[in-house]
Amino acid sequence: MSEIKRLVAAIERKNAPEEELSRFVNRMTETAYRLSGMQLAFRLAGLPEEEEGAVAPAMKARLLGLVKDSLTADFSGAGMEKLAARILAYRQNCAGYVKEALRLADVHDLADHMAARLEAGLFPERFPALPSDEEIIAQAYRYVAGNGSEGTGLRMQMLQKELPMRLSRGRFLDHVRGVFALYEGQQGQTLTDFADELLSAAGERQAEKAYALAAAEEEAVRAAFLTAGDPLTPEAYEQAKEALAVCGAQAQRIADALPEMAGAAGMLLVRVLSGPYVLSADPSDETVADVLKKLSAGEHPDEAMNAAFETLEGRDLELLADWQDGAAALADIRKHCRLLIDSLMLGPMFANLLRFDAWLTGGNFADPDDPGDIKVLEKADIAEAFEAFEKALTPVLQQLPRAARRSVMACIMGKLPPFAGNTEDVKAYLRGGITSCSDETEKKGFVSVLHSLQET
Fold it and tell me: How many helices (H) and strands (E) would you count in the chain?
């Protein structure tokens, strides 16, 4: 039995476990300090190298600067608070960039959906003759069915986005309303996030200028593919596709790199806030500090650093198991020992331990001080949320040209649960989308995308 597990058992067994309670808090704090230091080192060593001048390298340099400062920080109360505030601000910046990257990725996907359909009309020589509807339906079904049931739902969801969109606006909105209804009984934040995701898929999430990634390219993409402007010439199409590629690449780089950086900053925050309360020494402390010093100075992992990492392997898993043993009991201990915790002035330490658990195990962007909307949704709440969503989306559907409107509806469909269930439903849905499309260029675009999906 680990020391933390033993202390938890002792606290639960006694009526006045003063000594065990203090030791538990100290042991958990030291575990958090060492676990966060090791995880921080592993994450920093794994961060990618990228071209200079881009967002991700700049944010990496800023993170390394924070790590460097933490190794020489003034651990007075004021000094620790100042550094912690800088790390929190850094995590918020990471979240801002990732949110903007996801928005830009949705704009990219929407415009790319349009581009695939326009290309068949602008460059007919690039596309083979269309097979019969029956053959297209058969190919689509083979893609959905795959080699078995695993992944069938995801493939069907992807085809919901790519199939020729022939739902009426009313039927489309009815289907979205039905998906909203599935959120009854869940927390309000889940539906808020879902509605935002759908509006983002429609290209309607507002850009955050402070985190602009490819503003000029996005403007060119919107003008080319998502407005009712003049028909594109082949030359203008190719230029717009270049801008589209820039948007996609920029969004992908941020989505790949910054969540890991935000997670590393969470580990650093735990280490900074727990460090002043560490009373005992551990053989790993010097190793971790030396690795962090080298990494924060911009050194790449070499033979000596790799040897140091080898000495830490396994130890981090032991610490994680110890931490989880204690974290599972934190809420109950605070509830049943509240008066004793207050009398021993351990309240702030307990609050920190709960924050540490969120940063250590709750995901890269966990924010323990902002639980979001935790209200349990009822039918009236869902109706109100759908009304707000419909009010935001309707002007978009009314103002866009028909082809762009269909792409908006298709991209939203791609965010919804699979529309069809059993084999016959799937075949009927595929048949309905394909046979109802009389636009040959749109159908060619779909077949081209279907072939691309089959190859991935």
Answer: 19, 0
Listed in sequence order, the residues at least 6 apart from 90 whose beta carbon sits closer than 8 Å to its beta carbon are 59, 62, 63, 66, 265
Q: Which helix (H) or strand (E) holds 435?
A: helix 423-435
CA distances, 233 to each of 238, 241, 333, 400 (Å): 9, 12, 69, 20
pLDDT at 66: 96
- CA 387 to mean position of chain CA atoms: 26
Distance (Å, whole) CA 173 – CA 55:
38
Gyration radius of the chain's alpha carbons: 27
**Three-state SS for 376?**
strand
- Residues 6 or more apart whose CB falls under 8 angstroms from that of 194 comprise 180, 183
Tokens of 361: 């195990």
CA distance 413 to 201: 9
Q: How confident is the model at residue 148 (pLDDT cuts 50, 70, 90)?
A: low
How far apart (Å, rounded) are the C-alpha atoms in residues 4 and 10?
Answer: 10
Cβ atoms of residues 416 and 175 within 8 Å: yes
Q: How far apart are the first and last CA of the chain?
A: 48
Residue 378 neighbours by CB distance under 10 Å: 11
| 180-213 residue pLDDT tens | 999 999 988 999 999 999 999 999 888 888 999 9
Can you give the pLDDT at residue 254?
93
pLDDT at 337: 87
Mean pLDDT in residue range 34-43? 95
Contacts 24+ apart (CB under 8 A), 381-385: 381/188, 381/191, 382/180, 382/181, 382/183, 382/184, 382/191, 385/180, 385/183, 385/191, 385/192, 385/195
Q: Which amino acid is at 154?
A: L
- H or E segment to which residue 262 belongs: helix 234-274
- The mean pLDDT value for 363-392 works out to 86
Residue 394 C-beta-side C-alpha neighbours within 13 Å? 8
Q: In this structure, are residues 203 and 110 in contact, taking their beta carbons and an 8 Å threshold?
A: yes
Nearest to 36 by CA among 289, 269, 379, 340: 269
